[in-house]
Amino acid sequence: MLQRYGVQGLKHFGHELRGRCPIHKGEGSDAFKVNVEKQVFQCFSCQAKGNVLDFVGGYGEMQRPRLPE
After folding, report:
1. What residues contact 39, with CB distance under 8 A and at least 6 apart?
2. Could you report how far apart the first and last alpha carbons of the chain are, in Å?
């Protein structure tokens, strides 16, 4: 699902995915973590965290192209 929103470059570490935060585009290479089993995410740099619905509702909205009014 993360690839659907343009999140790339996450690496598997056990039951977690780690990589660069897609929300604040931070420099910390492993600051963004996704717990696949619990379906939650957290960035230790920008403090963003939540579940899959929070991610889609927050970050997903930022990535969705806007239609002209």
Report:
1. 51, 52
2. 29
> pTM of the prediction?
0.71
Residues 6+ apart with CB under 8 A from 47: none
Amino acid at 10: L
The structure tokens 């619990």 sit at: 38
| 50 within 8 A of 34, measured Cβ to Cβ | no
The pLDDT tens digits of the residues spanning 20-64 come to: 888 777 666 788 899 989 989 999 888 889 998 888 777 655 554
The C-alpha atoms of residue 35 and residue 51 are separated, in whole angstroms, by 9
